[in-house]
Amino acid sequence: MTKKDKTGIIGYGVYIPRFRIKVEEIARIWGQPGEAVKKGLGVLEKSIPDMDEDTITISVEASRNAIKMANTNPDDIEAVYVGSESHPYAVKPTATIVAEANRITPVTTAADLEFACKAGTAGIQMCLGMVKSNQIKVGLAIGADCSQGRPSDALEYTASAGACALLIGNENVIATIDHTESYTTDTPDFWRREGATYPSHGGRFTGEPAYFRHVISAAKSIMKHTNTSPDDFDYVVFHEPNSKFPLATAKMLGFPKEKVEPSLTVKYIGNTYSASSMIGLAAVLDIIKPDDRILMVSYGSGSGSDAFIFTITDEIEKHRGLVPTVQNYLDHKQYLDYAFYTKHRGKIKIH
Questions:
Q1: Among 210, 178, 148, 175, which Cα is nearest to 281's?
Q2: How many CB atoms lie within 10 A of CB 50?
Q3: DSSP string covering 250-262
Q4: Are residues 230 and 159 in the same domain?
Q5: Any idea what the CATH number is for the domain that residue 14 is in?
Q6: Residue 271 lies in a domain
Q7: Tens-digit pLDDT profile for residues 248-291
């Protein structure tokens, strides 16, 4: 691989709010069997944004960690893309605020992206293309959400908050992006109309024709086109709406559960939507060794998946311990009861 081809991640950072609520506490309010719900989802608890946190603030925190890890001059970052389905403003970009907060402005391109839970990985692909074509030196791709779930809806048990930022460049690369491709169709399994407070979903329809079809198709396609198999990868990362979907997907593709379990942060923080697969990737990067390979496949309702193959370089060892790890954020937590949870997320609108 030539130097020109060595484009990939030069730094990464996450941010997860410290507040949590247990699945049993939500189930208690709605008269549901907490243990059964927890077992069915494979989720123990979820993260909750503080009253002064939103997609912008958590994106800023994650991006600052990524910049610190890479020791990158903000002037070298010439693209900022923030993928989310919970941008605070309908008309006012999140990306410009994140860029300003990191002293990246004004000579940069910035945009907000939306594609349900895969908008962050779409940003990775955009940065990758611009770096490889020498249009920019470094690009910043962020997946972040403070996701919504209607009270008493199944989504309330998992909709959570978190952010992950990746810096894409071609110098001091810690993980090369060897190949990427996508699988996309018009499959409306999940949606939220303009002005609606909470999203709607197709129930069981969100599984087989939506999540599984797209993730499995994208994974099979990228392995076919790169002449690889599950044996060629040390870890696999999928979008994590719950724990059961990624584990089932791994089994159907022939990956042992040991290769997917290190990424399953959903058990402890819920579904962070646009940040989900990216935080799972970060959790693996925190523990991975040089020369190991990762297959990552995101998923966004509507529907589509982005697949990536990463190879870890020796450079990663130089960046250990510079910023908080995913595990650091998982361990730093404070539990809330449902009353305080309601206060933190603001006024509930049932209809």
A1: 175
A2: 14
A3: HHHHT--GGGTGG
A4: no
A5: 3.40.47.10
A6: yes
A7: 999 999 999 999 999 999 999 999 999 999 999 999 999 999 99
Amino acid letter, 292: D
Give yes or no: residues 27 and 155 share one domain. yes
195 torsion bin: left (phi>0), alpha (psi -120 to 50), beta (else): left
Query: Cβ neighbours of residue 271 under 8 Å, at least 6 residues apart?
Result: 46, 117, 147, 158, 159, 160, 240, 241, 242
**What confidence tier does 347 reach under pLDDT thresholds 50, 70, 90?**
very low
Rounded to an integer, what distance in angstroms lies between the CA atom of residue 12 and that of residue 282?
7
**Per-residue pLDDT tens digits for 45-91:** 999 999 999 999 999 999 999 999 999 999 999 999 999 999 999 89
For residue 150, CA distances in Å to 41, 147, 153, 155, 277 come to 17, 10, 5, 7, 23
Report the Cα 129 to chain-centroid distance in Å: 20
pLDDT score of 207 more than 70: no
Question: For the whole model, what pTM was predicted?
Answer: 0.95
Q: Are 235 and 256 in contact (CB under 8 A)?
A: no
Amino acid in the structure at residue 56: I
Catalytic residues: 85, 117, 239
- Return mean pLDDT, the chain: 93
Q: Is the pLDDT confidence value at 123 over 80?
A: yes
Nearest to 157 by CA among 318, 282, 20, 290: 20
Domain with 266 in it: 176-314
Give the strand pairing for 293-297 and 304-312.
antiparallel
Helix (H) or strand (E) holding 60: helix 55-70
Residues 114, 34, single domain; the answer is yes
In this structure, what token pair is assigned to residue 89?
A: 């403003």
Residue 168 has pLDDT above 90, yes or no: yes
